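Assess this today:

___
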Amino acid sequence: MTFVLDISGKAKKQIKSLKEDAGLTKRYKAVSHALRQLAANPRHPSLETHPIESLSGPNGEKMFEAYAEDKTPAAYRIFWCYGPDKGTIHIVSVQKHPD
């Protein structure tokens, strides 16, 4: 099943910021690739998707973290939840892994 990505305003700004910074081209490409994989299969092994118990989605949904990068300093992560509609993944945030 392919999912539709519903990207929050905050996440859109974060992605745009990556895209516009020439020094972050590699990171932008990694995030773009991870978003395509997430839409195709949120359980793709390279995403290492796992639930984040300490966070919840905008309507109390279970929140997940997916890897856009790994084994890299300040690796980028995608924070997301299912919904609001069936077949939709809501992208809440795209940011450096919190320390």
About this structure: DSSP finds two helices and five strands in the chain. The two ends are 33 Å apart (CA to CA). Residues 4-94 form a domain with the YaeB-like fold fold (CATH 3.30.2310.20). The chain has one domain: 4-94.
